[in-house]
Specification:
Length: 604
């Protein structure tokens, strides 16, 4: 029997998926209230959002789970709810959560209707072969249009609108009926294939006292405390010191049975020993075949992360390792910059993912960071030799030996009210976009599908899209293909020395403008020295932009009162010779603020 003596056919494992800001976390709060996990003492908004940054931004970043009981028609049921993020950058979190479920609640805002990420998450659930139950939220708003949303559910998603449930997560209206429909519509876990343990590790985090705490879904068999288990992909063995279910706190239980979602503690201190998507089994008489693993997620955006204080490198290394355990989409490898010292090249799923990772590293681990400008992964084909895949502009070979360069394109899916169509098409054209399809979902709502270079999308595209659509347009994107492109490597030289951390790959037509922006930002932040400093932006040997920071000067003839002019000329010539020698051997100190201002100038 499962937790609380619940038979397996009375277990319901489900996730809530939706477009960002359609009310997932609020609905999760209401479900926990009906499950008696929330009372006046622990009541707070976004109760499953455990990080401060989630509350401040009003978004879900990490998947979280909670188990609770529900009674209906004399029967007792166990609900395992897994809350998921809504932003496209965290789609990998969603896919991991879905692997532990039998069904999903597809939440749709009654006033906004189906949005871009509603469709993206719908297809994720469809690929996972899960039961999809439409839930129409915010029905208490004056602008709610339930009939319109039901029509979209039928025409755009191909689902039966009669199976949908209308609720107001904020007020609790209709949530009781939703609980009943979860029992009636979402299927229970499938019976175990055999008695040998197979459990899916779908999430994990590091606890400074317990070590790695793994979140698991038991597919076959039973996991007991003190079992000797094996990670099938890592081939490592451990003893389970604690198992249990996650409510608002961790609740230990003697075991987890087939169909249950819970957690386990093994005392693992080395986070590299754990791989999300791994299958757990027993050491003795264990399963031979692993569960299906997640599809590999490839980062799309890359940047360098360096500690402002060089002595914090080891602290940053430890912090990234622990964060990567909790965020399987994060990749990193050590790199060294002549200007910034030792750091890491980090790969992210998108710009929001990049912002969140950096903010978490600074908040949770106390590392003050300097970040280089984001870049994408280019395919470089030399005149002789094999293709190179490069994500760091500093590593680009000389353009004289390159045959061609290919850059990644993404398929952008935008859903917007018709009145903003012209503004958005102008933005897409400016970003070198190519029209793929424009479809009317209804007389007032348009779906735009374009192909645009990923490098153009990571620079302010989302902010400008919200600006030109007054916040109404929604965005989803996915990798499409690599295409040949006319891009060049733009180098920034300070005192005739290339600064590797400021190199960038830009579209040929944009190179001069980008170079002038960075040079202007540097000029404002680099202090004057005893000699003139030249700031240059160049492509190969061709200088596109230049600014000079004038030298500090001392009035050496101030002590001359009258007398022969040759005496003054002699002093000036001596000063000139000294300046010339200093210019040849002098080193320019570039403050951290100069790097920050130069990097920010590329995003504006």
């Amino acid at each position: 029997m499962a937790f609380g003596n619940i038979p397996q056919e009375h277990i319901r494992n489900f996730s809530i998926i939706a477009h960002i800001d359609h009310g997932k976390s609020t609905l999760a709060d209401r479900l926990l209230e009906f499950g008696n996990l929330v009372n006046s003492r622990n009541q707070k908004d976004q109760i499953l959002d455990s990080m401060d940054i989630e509350r401040e931004r009003g978004i879900t970043i990490k998947s979280n789970s909670a188990s609770f009981h529900y009674s209906m028609d004399g029967g007792k049921y166990l609900f395992n709810l897994i809350d998921t993020p809504g932003h496209v950058d965290f789609s990998f979190e969603v896919s991991r959560s879905l692997a532990a479920c039998e069904g999903v609640l597809l939440l749709i805002d009654a006033s906004q209707g189906i949005q871009a990420q509603t469709l993206a998450n719908f297809y994720l659930a469809l690929e996972s072969d899960l039961y999809i139950m439409p839930v129409i939220n915010k029905i208490d708003l004056p602008s709610a249009n339930i009939d319109k949303v039901k029509k979209q559910i039928e025409e755009s998603l191909g689902l039966d609108p009669k199976t949908s449930v209308a609720v107001s997560a904020k007020s609790g209206l209709g949530v009781d009926e939703l609980m009943r429909q979860i029992v009636l519509q979402i299927p229970p876990p499938k019976p175990a294939q055999n008695s040998r343990l197979r459990a899916l590790l779908f999430d994990a985090y590091y606890d400074s006292y317990r070590g790695v705490v793994g979140k698991i879904r038991v597919m076959d068999g039973t996991l007991h405390k003190n079992d000797h288990i094996r990670f099938m992909r890592k081939k490592s063995d451990y003893v389970v010191t604690e198992v249990g279910v996650a409510q608002l706190t961790l609740l230990p239980t003697p075991s987890l049975e087939s169909g249950e979602v819970g957690y386990m503690v093994t005392g693992i201190k080395n986070v590299s020993e754990v791989m999300l998507g791994d299958t757990l089994t027993t050491v003795h008489d264990g399963a031979e075949e692993a569960l299906l693993s997640y599809r590999d997620i490839k980062p799309m955006v890359f940047s360098g992360l360096y500690p402002v204080n060089g002595e914090d490198y080891e602290l940053l290394k430890e912090a990234i390792e622990k964060l990567a355990l909790n965020d399987a989409a994060l990749t990193y490898e050590p790199e060294t910059s002549e200007a910034l010292g030792s750091g890491f090249r980090v790969g992210y799923l998108g710009m929001l993912h990049m912002e969140i990772v950096q903010e978490r590293l600074e908040r949770e681990f106390g590392v003050i960071l300097l970040t280089t400008a984001p870049s994408v992964k280019y395919h470089v084909y030399p005149l002789h030799g094999e293709k190179m895949v490069i994500d760091n502009p500093a590593h680009f070979p000389d353009f004289s030996v390159i045959d061609r360069i290919e850059e990644p394109y993404v398929k952008v899916n935008i859903i917007t009210p018709e009145e903003f169509l012209g503004n958005i098409l102008n933005l897409l054209q400016e970003k070198r976009g190519e029209n793929n399809a424009i479809t009317y979902l209804d007389p007032t709502t348009v779906q735009i599908v374009y192909l645009i270079p990923l490098a153009e999308m990571i620079f302010e595209f989302y902010d400008r899209l919200k600006s030109v659509s007054k916040g109404y347009a929604s965005l989803d994107y996915e990798f499409a293909e690599y295409r040949p492109s006319k891009v060049v490597k733009l180098d920034i030289l300070v005192h005739h020395n290339k600064v590797d951390a400021l190199s960038m790959i830009v579209y040929t037509d944009f190179a001069e403008r980008r170079g002038r922006e960075v040079i202007a930002a540097l000029k404002d932040k680099i202090s004057r020295h005893q000699f003139q400093i030249a700031l240059q932006a160049s492509v190969g040997s061709r200088v596109l932009a230049r600014e000079n920071i004038s030298a500090l000067r001392k009035n050496v003839i101030a002590k001359c009162y009258g007398g022969d002019i040759s005496r003054k000329r002699k002093l000036l010539e001596k000063q000139k010779a000294g300046k010339k020698r200093m210019k040849m051997v002098g080193a320019v100190e570039i403050p951290q603020e100069a790097f920050l201002s130069a990097l920010k100038s590329r995003e504006s």
